[in-house]
Amino acid sequence: MDGAPSRVLHIRKLPGEVTETEVIALGLPFGKVTNILMLKGKNQAFLELATEEAAITMVNYYSAVTPHLRNQPIYIQYSNHKELKTDNTLNQRAQAVLQAVTAVQATNAPISGTTVSESAVTPAQSPVLRIIIDNMYYPVTLDVLHQALDGQNIYNACCTLRIDFSKLVNLNVKYNNDKSRDYTRPDLPSGDGQPALDPAIAAAFAKETSLLGLPVAAVPGALSPLAIPNAAAAAAAAAAGRVGMPGVSAGGNTVLLVSNLNEEMVTPQSLFTLFGVYGDVQRVKILYNKKDSALIQMADGNQSQLAMSHLNGQKMYGKIIRVTLSKHQTVQLPREGLDDQGLTKDFGNSPLHRFKKPGSKNFQNIFPPSATLHLSNIPPSVAEEDLRTLFANTGGTVKAFKFFKEITRWHFFRCQQ
User: Fold this and answer.
1) SS3 163
2) C-alpha span between 206 and 158 (Å, rounded)
3) Cα-trace Rg, the chain
4) Residue 338 carries which DSSP code?
5) How wide is the angle at C-alpha 187 spanned by C-alphas 23 and 83, nearest 5°?
6) What phi, psi does 100 have (nearest 5°)?
7) Distance between CA atoms of residues 398 and 47, nearest Å
8) Which long-range contacts (CB under 8 A, 24 or more apart) does 380-389 make?
9) DSSP assignment, residue 124?
10) Dist CA 178 CA 185 (whole Å)
């Protein structure tokens, strides 16, 4: 990382699909980010920090810890520029993202123009934050908390952050391990009797991960409440056997028991469609002697957990369904020649699976049920009225419709049933 120190940093070798949010996130731990210029055609960016001191700290840190974005190492060095002069009309998206981040920073910043000694800082203005995690369903590491925002969910529908000012005015960190970490001092020891990160977790730092459908970033984006800053969080959770990541077994049961179904209307196909939003459904069996219940086998334990957390207590065909883990490890197909009245279906080779392709954008679009639907891959010959009629024929009422006439046709509905 050559060159004279400057508060403007030059970032090279960026992945082609990297976002402004991810680039800004690189600088957030070290101070306020004041400007950004993306050169996507060259896979480069310029990031301007508020002070030269903050930039030096950032460069020093990433000299010892190689930064990765989307499983690709990137390179950071001082720029020849002392400040960035950007044309907002040509850089509107980047500036909009930066303004959003700045607004969040300003909310928690002390009043400008005041000088307060550390010993005189009151709890309401303390630089130390106290964080409480509600509904902690998955493990949460220091790296996850490193980019925390009050009221946000770290993972979908769980691990909600409660952040306020601490009574402490200073943190004295002696060791960098899984219990404490100083992000400005990568040289600190791990501490006697306190091991550093587990080797399996450390090895996963360099791996791209999409944890519960969240992109690897460090500030809120359009697709998720709060993105995970790096692979360490995913690795820690995967090590606990509760979530999935490439190359690591998710563990847990893949079979769900769904009860209180509307037995007059439910079919294996309808259950495949609903649960297929959260994973690749392999088999569905509606119970012969209890047709208001069904077994659904997902591709892995992570997907079954996702489906259970999002669909338990939701309404299907007018009834509140209950979704729990089954004691069964697999859904058995009927014996050859036995007619089970179409209650069991094998969807293992279905072309409608959404999560077959590793790294698919579908992993970034996993949300709880909503009245607003997103439709894609619509044939060019299909008009708005055709779609309205399609949804009306299922018993729903289309209350609003937005049609984007682009190369990829996207349609948004708001339905009421």
Assistant:
1) strand
2) 26
3) 25
4) -
5) 35
6) -65, -45
7) 45
8) 380/409, 384/411, 387/411, 387/413
9) G
10) 15
Give the rounded distance of the alpha carbon of 344 from its chain centre: 34
Query: How many Cα atoms sit within 13 Å of 316 on the Cβ side?
Result: 27
Token reading at 132: 């409480």
Q: What are phi and psi of 154, to 5 degrees?
A: -65, -45
Across 102-157, the runs of DSSP E, i.e. the strands, are 129-134, 153-155
Q: Tokens standing for 107?
A: 């909310």
Q: Tell how strand 44-49 and strand 72-73 pair up.
A: unpaired
Q: How many helices (H) and strands (E) does the chain have?
A: 9, 19
Closest CA to 9 of 69, 75, 78, 83: 78
The dihedrals phi and psi of 258, each to the nearest 5 degrees, come to: -115, 125
Sheet holding 344-346, edge to edge: 322-325, 255-259, 294-298, 281-286, 344-346
Prediction pTM value: 0.42
Distance CA 53, CA 128 (A): 20
Question: Which tokens is 18 given?
Answer: 């990297």
- Quick count: other Cβ atoms within 10 Å of Cβ 417? 11
DSSP state of 228: B
| pLDDT surpasses 70 at 4 | yes
User: Which tens digits make up the pLDDT trace of 94-152?
Assistant: 777 777 666 655 544 443 333 333 333 334 456 777 787 766 656 677 767 766 666 66
Instruction: Determine the Cα–Cα distance for residues 182 and 59; give it in Å rounded to an integer.
Output: 15
* Tens of pLDDT, residues 21-32: 888 888 887 888
